[in-house]
């Protein structure tokens, strides 16, 4: 399934993009005056093949997994918080529960690799294994397990698309997951552990030192090959990161835009990009996280974030907020009048354009 999905990912529809740009330039406004909204509208046209795309349904897909590297003291929160937060998500009271509801998006929470059994109503059960191994001492998972987790993400994404969603957002849950995300950044970008590592959630100086040390040892022990995305993912990644990379690939294969959230989901985007560079064209970077390495990741992907709100919660919260802006871009295309449609004379048009 993974390799078939990768092969299905094509180029953007340039003709639809040209038609969309022509439409934008005909609207009753100075050219380019709606800035990034116009860029999004043209990108959506290329993704969907429609000059006037419409958002018909929205889904936020949160992948959850645990990490053996927590044994190294890289997080101030215990592993139990992963399941506790999943409960809050499906109950609608976590940050992503509130913001997905605000965006009128379906929230899908998936157990792809939580350490303990999860018997929560509303959680999709797709566990590949019970947490990853400790990357500071060995690989996170086998190559086959990485493929399985990727395919979970593909299947969940395409199930949501089949159910009517044509705009997806990615979110994450997993205590300690900024550590493997930093390791992925270091591996793909050639950065040192210090350059790639941020504080994550409420990390003090002592824990920060442990985190940098664990990442440095993970890179030295596992020697992930930056030319082999599956090798990097299996050796220093996470199950939820793999699942999210699968969501991105699955969306791209079905010509569906997918919003990237913060540091962890962008690590997944890097994996997806390395597996299939064309997948980047289907990604929209929602925001710039406060996490140190997020800008470095976005630079590697050559993506520009839509909003800057100093957010660093994760969960998909930034991506959920950006859904309304993506939908606004489609409404500009469909509902705003052209000069001809509005009956604006050529003289008035000249004045506006000046």
Protein model, in words:
This protein is α/β, with parallel strands linked by helices and 354 residues long. The model has no long low-confidence stretch (mean pLDDT 95). The protein folds into two domains: 2-53 and 332-353, 5,6-Dimethylbenzimidazole Phosphoribosyltransferase, Chain: A, domain 1 (Orthogonal Bundle); 58-326, Rossmann fold (3-Layer(aba) Sandwich). It has a six-stranded parallel sheet, sandwiched between helices. It contains 16 helices and six strands. It starts with a helix and ends with a helix. α1 (2-8) crosses α11 (239-253), α2 packs antiparallel against α3 and α6 (143-162) packs across α10.
Quick overview of this protein structure:
It catalyses: 5,6-dimethylbenzimidazole + nicotinate beta-D-ribonucleotide = alpha-ribazole 5'-phosphate + nicotinate + H(+). This protein has helices spanning 2-8, 14-26, 36-48, 80-90, 95-102, 143-162, 178-189, 193-196, 205-222, 229-236, 239-253, 263-275, 294-301, 317-335, 339-342, 346-353, and strands spanning 58-65, 106-113, 123-125, 167-173, 258-260, 283-285.
């Amino acid at each position: 399934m993974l390799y078939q999905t990768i092969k299905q990912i094509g180029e953007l529809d340039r003709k639809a993009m040209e038609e969309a740009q022509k439409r934008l330039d005909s609207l009753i406004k100075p050219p380019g005056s709606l800035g990034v909204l116009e860029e999004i509208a043209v990108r959506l046209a290329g993704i969907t093949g429609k000059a006037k795309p419409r958002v018909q349904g929205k889904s936020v897909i949160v992948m959850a997994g645990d990490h053996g590297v927590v044994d190294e003291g890289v997080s101030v929160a215990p592993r139990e918080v992963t399941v506790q937060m999943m409960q809050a998500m499906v109950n609608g009271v976590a940050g992503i529960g509130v913001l997905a509801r605000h965006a009128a998006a379906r929230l899908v929470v998936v157990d792809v690799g939580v350490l303990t059994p999860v018997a929560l109503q509303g959680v999709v059960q797709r566990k590949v294994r019970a947490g990853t191994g400790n990357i500071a001492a060995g690989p996170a998972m086998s190559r086959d397990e990485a493929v399985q987790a990727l395919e979970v993400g593909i299947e969940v994404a395409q199930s949501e698309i089949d159910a009517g969603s044509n705009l997806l957002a990615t979110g994450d849950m997993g205590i300690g997951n900024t550590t493997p995300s930093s390791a992925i950044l270091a591996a793909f970008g050639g950065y040192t552990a210090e350059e790639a590592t941020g504080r994550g959630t409420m990390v003090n100086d002592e824990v920060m030192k442990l985190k940098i040390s664990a990442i440095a040892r993970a890179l030295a022990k596992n020697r992930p090959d930056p030319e082999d995305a599956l090798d990097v993912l299996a050796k220093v990644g996470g199950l939820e990161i793999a699942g999210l990379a699968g969501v991105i690939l699955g969306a791209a294969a079905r010509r569906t835009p997918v919003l990237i959230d913060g540091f962890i989901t962008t690590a997944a985007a890097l994996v997806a990009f390395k597996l299939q560079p064309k997948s980047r064209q289907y990604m929209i970077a929602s925001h710039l996280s406060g996490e140190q390495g997020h800008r470095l990741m976005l630079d590697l992907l050559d993506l520009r974030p839509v909003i800057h709100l100093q957010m660093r919660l994760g969960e998909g919260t930034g991506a959920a907020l950006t859904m309304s802006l993506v939908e606004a871009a489609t409404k500009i295309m469909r509902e705003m009048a052209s000069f001809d449609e509005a009956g604006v004379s050529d003289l008035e048009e000249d004045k506006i354009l000046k």
